[in-house]
Amino acid sequence: MSRFTLLFACLLAFLLACRKENNVVTTIDPGDEFSNKVERYLNVPRIPPSYKVQLPTYVKGLFPAAQPNAALAQLGRVLFYDKKLSKDGAVSCASCHEQAHGFADPVALSTGVSGLMTTRNSMALGNIQWFAGMLGLDSLGNAALPLFWDSRAFSVADQSRAAFTNSHEMGLTMPEVLAIVQTQPYYSWLFAQATGDTVVTEDRIFTALTHFMGAMSANHSKLDAALALGGAQPDINIDFQNFTAAENIGKQLYLANCVSCHGSVNSIQKIFEANNGLEKPYIDKGKGAISGKFYENGIFKVPGLRNIELTAPYMHDGRFKTLEAVVEHYNSGVIEVFGLHGDLLSYDPITLSYDPKRLNLTETEKQALVAFLKTMTDTQLGTDARFSDPFR
Questions:
Q1: How many CB atoms sit inside 10 A of residue 246's CB?
Q2: How far apart are CA 108 and CA 313, in angstroms?
Q3: 344 in Cβ contact with 262 (< 8 Å)
């Protein structure tokens, strides 16, 4: 073999050993550090899969979706599922946000460290990116929609910090979180891959979690399939060919009664927080408990409805176990209370007063509305291996 041929072969071998994705260069370490420090504990690939988010053409937003970095998202996945990042080593982010349930919790209140219960129902995390993309917001930065039921967090970083440090959730201080991450053998390799070195900081932890949660895009539903047939501007008022008669009736009922708060099926949500007449007097004052303003008592975040079939129970306290119960609340159960959102009021010309709105749906119509809501169920996110528990 000539010297030139030998040199070429060595160069080719080096290039094949290096793979580049999302501006992160991954090399096979001497001594195979990946096998020794990562693969022994985690079921993750050496080269992370793409976490690219592709928003449907019919989504009407101002900007394209911000794209998660693959290596950062994979690091975020490990952080999200790591139970060591809790005071008793028994709770992770995923403990209260289960993949099979739209990254929500199938119980009214979640169990945190030492068996302590959370004070509110765990909100669904799936579709943060899709929701932000519709609004033209970058969910990978700080320009994001308020999070938590009382809208007290304005970024995934704020949300994650609150979960780590809540005494009923994960029960740690952030210095304790950093110390735990620094002592786990697999994190040094994952941080080096994602950031270029092994330095562990709060900002890097939150950035990784943001990239992971930002990739949870739920747009593989029966509704999405129907909208896709209409191109960039589908006519949402016509009957969808792939819908049943009940689902099409439910869609019309949704467009007539639910759009004002939850947005149309292919446009931005109009209202992000509201008092929906759940109780009087208030057991939980919602946003008012944070702001101290009496007129914000009973105001809670209006959640997106993607994967709503999977995220029971419903409302901030998980009081409704089924979608049927939710529909019945808006049909006949909205309570007259100070601060009730205007879209839930109707004007009575006889008494010259505003009263809680009653939809007066028939049983068939209520069933049809529930049938339509179930067409929003994503068929892939709940089983996508990229978002599953990576621990062996």
A1: 16
A2: 6
A3: no
Token pair in block for residue 192: 């080096």
> What is the spatial distance between Cα 150 and Cα 287, in angstroms, rounded to a whole number?
4
**Is this prediction's pTM over 0.85?**
yes
Buried b (16+ CB within 10 A) or exposed e, 367-388: bbbbbbbbbbbbeebbeeebbe
The whole-angstrom separation of Cα 314 and Cα 308 is 9
Burial of 299 (0-12, 13-18, 19+ CB in 10 A): buried
Q: What six digits make up the tokens of 46?
A: 């050496």
The pLDDT tens digits for 306-339 are: 899 999 999 999 999 999 999 999 999 999 999 9
Instruction: Give the span between the Cα atoms of 388 and 340, in whole angstroms.
Output: 40
Q: In terms of Cα–Cα distance, which of 297, 317, 338 is closest to 329?
A: 317
Q: Which residues pair with 42 in a beta bridge?
A: 391
Handedness of CA 269, 273, 279, 280 (dihedral sign): negative
- CA 368-371-374 angle, 5° bins: 155
Amino acid at 140: L
d(CA 298, CA 288): 7
CA-to-CA dists, residue 184 to 42, 189, 275, angstroms: 12, 10, 44
Helix (H) or strand (E) holding 290: helix 287-291
What distance in Å separates the CA atoms of residue 381 and residue 387, rounded to the nearest whole number?
8
- With 0-12 CB in 10 A as exposed, 13-18 as middle and 19+ as buried, what is 344? buried
In Å, what is the CA distance from 204 to each residue of 9, 150, 183, 313, 391? 38, 26, 16, 33, 21
Domains of the chain: 3-218+383-387 (1.10.760.10), 222-376 (1.10.760.10)
2 vs 4: CA distance, rounded Å: 5
The pairs formed by 55-58 with CB atoms below 8 angstroms and a separation of 24 or more are 55/130, 55/133, 55/134, 55/217, 55/219, 56/219, 56/224, 56/227, 56/228, 57/228, 57/231, 57/232, 58/227, 58/228, 58/230, 58/231, 58/232, 58/233, 58/234, 58/266
**What are the pLDDT digits (tens) for 1-58?**
444 333 333 333 333 333 333 444 444 444 589 999 999 999 999 999 999 887 777 7
Collapsed DSSP state (helix, strand, coil) of residue 115: helix
